[in-house]
Write a structure and sequence with these properties.
With 679 residues, the chain is mostly beta strands. It has a single domain, classed as Beta Barrel (Maltoporin, Chain A). The strands form eight sheets. It has a 22-stranded antiparallel barrel. The protein has a five-stranded mixed beta sheet with strand order 3-8-9-6-7. A hairpin with a 7-residue loop joins strand 1 and strand 2.
């Protein structure tokens, strides 16, 4: 049953009252009053240089994304992967998508408007990364209209400001609620202490790429900390040829000066004592050269995405065994796509969306009960504005003017139980109610067994859900290639089983083997109706199974990270392989020093097997990227030179509905020169 506004506030009130009452009872218990804090309950050490640590020590580094409390990588109920700021610098990753593409089981698709993330064989046509939950410093960033997780140049942070990225594969709804079907990505930003002064950065590269950043960081007594940063980015792009439009009246298939990209980002962070505040703003305008959704070829078409987030967090120890965390947040997303649409006579059309939301989360971590570590909490959010518009400019004609709102509320509990014989049980349960779906119960259970100090086994089971978003339910556009509403959509669900084996090969090496099986039902998919309009439907069930092997090694200043993924994803009803689902993924990242550590070389290779498109196929390919980095030429400066697609490999990605093309050609070889100077 849909959650009405009145019922929502009633449920939220009950959840808060129950949580506060429960915490008061726990805090008054003698078990808490006399307990000593455990070392593992200390906040994660943000100042630790993860990249410089031996991998055996890295396995004990605390991460917080998997369970909302700090735990070591080996204790987490998932095959957690951590990327550091050193990885970002040494491999020249310009976007979040670049970083995620290096992880086991993940792959990126680009339609020259947005970049899309696939996992373990799943990347549904028409999906805007809504099956991943993207967090920035623990704050949800997926908007309410598209549920989009921005990972390309629309990601509203400069990658130079990212301290580390925690990726938790598998379902995360037991902890975070909706959208966490295939994984949770938590981007943790740097503090003022990481800069300790002013910093300026400039970059220039192929096809008119230019970037400039100015940052300032300060750290004082009593945890006082501040960071301010602004970034401007511009890229002219290249002229692109599309054989589907190769006619004399369409410039023989060449799109001129339409692949441009411009972005402005701003970050402000402040902390004092137990309080932390952050504000994030990002505005990106991307030229669209491939004429999707009925746009006239080789005419000005662009998409503009504006993200704004504000977050105020408070963390306080209620007693030696109870840590209280609370957070209030606000978010806004605006989208606009002006285009000239056909058929003749051509009409200037504007498509747009606006989302506005706010919410709060309160949870407590209880660590003073013997053999237990418990998180109990509640969160609620109000999607105050879920607006979608579409109109013709001259003469003005309103084609779509849709306005909705919604509520989300959830209560959750997680318990890490230390068992005899080196076993640990992690059990979590969450209940959510959401306007766009019925109530959803999301369980997770993980059994961790440390056979030896070097060998760890994890048996994991979890369920997750995603409610239909406003775009899938209410967007409507006339004409062939347009879209129909479907307010009767149901939430989609997934159940996963995974076996993970982690082996510390030496003090500097680590290997991980994961065997997984996913079962999804009521998948929401864009389908073509008899009238020629697209409509989102709960179409079918799908299954995926496979294996991932990952390896890391530190040796004599060099670092190697490699992985191989084998995955089979298919429609459970027909047995047909899913679209855009590669069977094989192979990756390697090598960072090695030269000339007495004066020069660091980052070499990256990614291979993807062929994938099905709507009717045809996108061939497999291997990409190689190379980054040279030095801090020795100019004192206080970091200079780097990167070549992307080193071998100039020509390849294409499948694209979703709304495109005439089956596949879209990807970027040829490019280079980038970058300089960072600290004052």
């Amino acid at each position: 049953m849909a959650l009405t506004t009145r019922a929502y506030f009633s449920l939220s009130h009950r959840l808060v009252v129950c949580s506060v009452a429960g915490l008061a009872t726990l805090c008054s218990s003698p078990a808490f009053a006399d307990a000593e804090p455990r070392a593992s309950d200390a906040p994660a050490a943000d100042t630790v240089d993860l990249a410089a640590m031996p991998l055996e020590a890295l396995m004990q580094v605390t991460v917080s994304t998997a369970s909302r409390f700090d735990q070591s990588v080996t204790d987490a109920p998932a095959a957690v992967v951590v990327l550091t700021d050193e990885d970002i610098r040494q491999f020249g990753w310009r976007t979040l998508a670049d970083a995620l593409a290096s992880l086991p089981g993940l792959y990126i698709t680009n339609d020259r408007s947005y970049e899309y993330l696939g996992a373990r064989g799943f990347q549904r046509p028409g999906d805007y990364n809504s099956r991943f939950l993207l967090l920035i410093d623990g704050m949800r960033t997926n908007d309410g209209v598209f549920d989009q997780a921005p990972i390309g140049t629309d990601f509203p942070l400069d990658m130079a400001l990212v301290k580390r990225i925690e990726y938790v594969p598998g379902p995360g709804s037991s902890v975070y609620g909706a959208n966490a079907l295939f994984g949770v990505i938590n981007v943790i930003t740097k503090n003022g202490s990481d800069l300790a002064g002013a910093e300026a950065a400039v970059a220039a590269g192929s096809y008119g790429e230019k970037k400039a950043r100015a940052s300032y960081g300060w750290h004082g007594a009593h945890g006082a900390d501040m960071l301010l940063s602004a970034t401007s980015y511009e890229r002219n792009g290249q002229d692109l040829y599309y054989p589907e439009f190769d006619t004399p009246d369409q410039n023989h298939g060449v799109a001129n000066r339409l692949d441009y990209d411009r972005a402005q980002d701003f970050l402000a962070k402040a902390a004092y004592g137990d309080f932390r505040f952050s504000f994030i703003y990002g505005n990106r305008t991307k030229g669209v050269p491939d004429a999707p959704y009925g746009a006239v070829f080789n005419t000005p078409t662009s998409v503009t995405d504006t993200h704004s987030y504000a977050d105020l967090a408070y963390q306080h120890a209620l007693s030696s065994g109870v840590m209280l965390n609370s957070q209030v947040y606000w978010g806004r997303y605006d989208y606009r796509m002006p285009a000239l649409t056909g058929p003749a006579p051509d009409v200037s059309n504007v498509d747009g969306a606006h989302a506005l939301w706010y919410g709060a989360d309160v949870h407590a971590t209880v660590s003073s009960l013997a053999q237990h570590r418990i998180v109990i909490g509640t969160d609620f959010a109000r999607d105050a504005r879920l607006d979608q518009t579409n109109f013709n400019v001259d003469p003005y004609t309103q084609l779509l003017d849709d306005h909705h709102s919604g509520n989300r509320a959830g209560v959750y509990i997680e318990d890490e139980i230390t068992l005899p014989a080196s076993f640990t049980l992690n059990a979590g349960l969450r209940y959510d109610e959401q306007t766009a779906s019925n109530g959803n119960l999301s369980p997770r259970i993980g059994l961790v067994y440390k056979l030896t100090p070097r060998d760890t086994f994890k048996l994991l089971y979890g369920q997750a859900y995603r409610a239909p978003n406003a775009y899938e339910m209410y967007y409507a556009a006339p004409g062939v290639g347009g879209q129909m509403q479907n307010p009767s959509l149901r939430a989609e669900h997934i159940a996963t089983t995974e076996l993970v084996y982690e082996r510390a090969l030496s003090t500097t090496g680590r290997a991980t083997l994961s065997l997984f099986e996913y079962s999804a039902r009521d998948l929401i998919t864009a389908t073509l109706s008899d009238s020629g309009l697209y409509i989102f439907r709960n179409t079918h069930r799908a299954n995926a199974r496979g294996a991932e092997l990952a390896y890391q090694q530190n040796l004599a200043g060099a670092r190697l990270r490699a992985s191989y993924s084998y995955q089979i994803a298919h429609d459970s009803d027909t047995g047909v392989a899913l679209q855009n689902s590669p069977r094989h993924l192979a990756k390697a990242n090598l960072a090695a020093p030269f000339f007495s550590n004066a020069l660091m070389t980052g070499l990256e290779m990614q291979c993807t097997s062929s994938r099905l498109a709507v009717h045809g196929e996108a061939g497999g390919y291997c990409l190689t990227n190379l980054t040279l980095d030095t801090r020795r030429l100019i004192r206080g400066a970091d200079l780097s030179f990167s070549i992307y697609n080193l071998t100039d490999k020509r390849y294409a990605d499948p694209v979703g509905p709304g495109f005439i093309q089956e596949t879209v050609a990807q970027q040829s070889r490019t280079f980038l020169v970058k300089a960072v100077y600290g004052f």
